[in-house]
């Protein structure tokens, strides 16, 4: 078994046949694609499904017992839209026992005149899916076991699975009965059956007694999904998305890994752009301070205004005038009451408290910046305006 597991892959096909009750035996069959090898087994009940969960990353098909599945052929009057599932359900509700809303209805096939449907109770569907979920088995397909039997027009197909007979009496219909009941019915030879059909059943019965459950599952495997039937439809479609859980997880991890790489590259790119912007700002800042030295760079205590004057070029503007005035006002160490800016006049006006005339005259003498004129206007409230024009 361990050697066989080493060779399995998602391309291989695992078939599990479920009964209608948790204590009924469960059969499984594993076929390697492209190889002649296979493996099969029988589980005593649904609890033992966990014993084969390590095979569940294959393509898993579930065959369900047809014992409690209803098959109906519905006539489409006046070309009713077959996608109207409510119409189809209520059209055969009177032929079953129970509320049709408690059944999961599946369209098997339709043509111009008829629609073939199957119905199974939601409770039973939930049981099957719960058994598989508890065992950690993800599935891709769920179909009735009788629909995997070979079918020939006007002839029944039957297959013996341990003590149970599976009979397909139509393209989209069938049933199952116990071996003891089947033997009694066969002895009676129902008059409704044609001679050809009875003889065909007799021939198949002799052959069926000679095969075991492994051979039966092998026959079913050859006919799976030829008609495109899948009970994982409607509200149960979401279970189909889990059919490749292992590879879905791998894809999710791969996507997360690629997303992380993308985020890292984006972070590095943004970091590079930020560094570039910082370099640009540094160049602009150096250029600005080269043109407008900060007050800390000027040794005003030594009145080294010639250094400042020489650092400026002839192209004066408002910023230059503001810078010149700030150097002068700071040297006065006098409180500023208000500042007025006049773009039209090209002037900056500082209103200051009056100081000793000698101190102010000395500062004005030291101020000699080409392109900037300075004037003083005294007010009656012992304040004066220093006007810098450019």
TrEMBL record:
Keyword set includes Transmembrane helix: yes
GO biological-process terms attached to the record: protein secretion by the type II secretion system
InterPro entries in the cross-refs: ATPase_NBD, GspL_cyto_dom, T2SS_protein-GspL
CDD domains in alphabetical order: ASKHA_T2SSL_N (cd24017)
TM helices/strands, residue ranges: 246-269
Pfam families to which the protein is assigned, alphabetical: T2SSL
Keywords, in A-Z order: Membrane, Transmembrane, Transmembrane helix
SUPFAM superfamilies associated with the record: Actin-like ATPase domain
GO cellular component terms attached to this protein's record: Gram-negative-bacterium-type cell wall; type II protein secretion system complex
Organism superkingdom: Bacteria
Every GspL cytoplasmic actin-ATPase-like domain range: 14-237
Protein name per UniProt: General secretion pathway protein L
Organism: Yersinia frederiksenii
The gene coding this protein: outL
